Amino acid sequence: MFMPLDFLLRSLAGLLSVALLGGGAYILRQWYEGELVSDRWLYLSIGLLLWSFLGFLPMLLLRRAGRDEPKPNRAKQVKYLSRPDGSEIRVEFYGAEHAPPLILTHGWGPDSTVWYYAKKQLVDQFRVIVWDLPGLGKSKKPKNRDYSLEKYARDLDAVLTLVGDQPAILLGHSMGAMIQLTFCRLFPERLKQRVAGLILADGTYTNPLRTTVLSKLLLALQKPLLEPLLHLAIVLSPLLHLTSWLSYLNGTTLLTTEISGFTGRETRGQLNFSSLIGIKAPPGILARGVLAMLKFDETATLSQISVPALVVVGQSDIATRSIASDRMSREIPQGELKILSPGGHMVLMERNLQFAEIVQAFSHSCLSLRR
What we know:
This protein is α/β, with parallel strands linked by helices. It contains 15 helices and eight strands.
């Protein structure tokens, strides 16, 4: 998930990647021209260059292999929604047409394929509906460059219209949970008519810098450093896309993904999948989304939510710490908190079986109440 903390970590990874490759190439040239005489400099340059392009291999091989590793599977049943801003939403459907609808909204950075496990484990009992946020995955980006939470909340409302009159369960992860809170503010009438329950996974109710690790430091750096860097990332998007892939090849992206998303218990495939899915989107689009998140605050919305809400968080989540989930569950009138331990920001993947069981039990409870 591309949260403000991830932006900082990836920026540092990009600088390290350039330093590794540039340093190796410089030392090799100096040795070739005779400025550096010892062959040790040759071996050092070769080592740095190999690390620049193959460093990901030992990092992956040291992790355990899982029995069911995530894959970027796509559905055959698809609909496209054209939006007034020029964007187009790709919506995918899994499961029986008349089963209770469960709409999944992914976080910022990846696309709907991040729901690999949820789609497999929930499809027997629900009509699982996933969608790519415009600008990510296979959904077309908005022509007006609007990546606000309000824009995506309106898009979620458009997806909700596809389920007809059936009451739906809304499940959002990370920024997806933030989108759902914005949806609750913009469309409170939908909660009584069309939505049976909310599931907010590893999300927050305010500027993510306030509920992440090192929050005081990051808030102090927001205006003088982070926001200028985000605007610079928009301008330098093509170059940063190259450094993102270089960071993956040398293994630093795998390291930052593990730090921000997992607890060290993830499988090789889960770590690799999460790292790759997060670097496909153009950095300029990701930066615009992070800038939008820095303006986010739905604190006042929590007490106005009129349907049951399950708040799920990994105990070791550093991107959106459990203090945010605890407050959401207390201030939402029908809020309930589930903490998965061990678990990080990517509990939907790292603790996929437990996550699916919680979602299933809560959803059936909400639908029973609605009936």
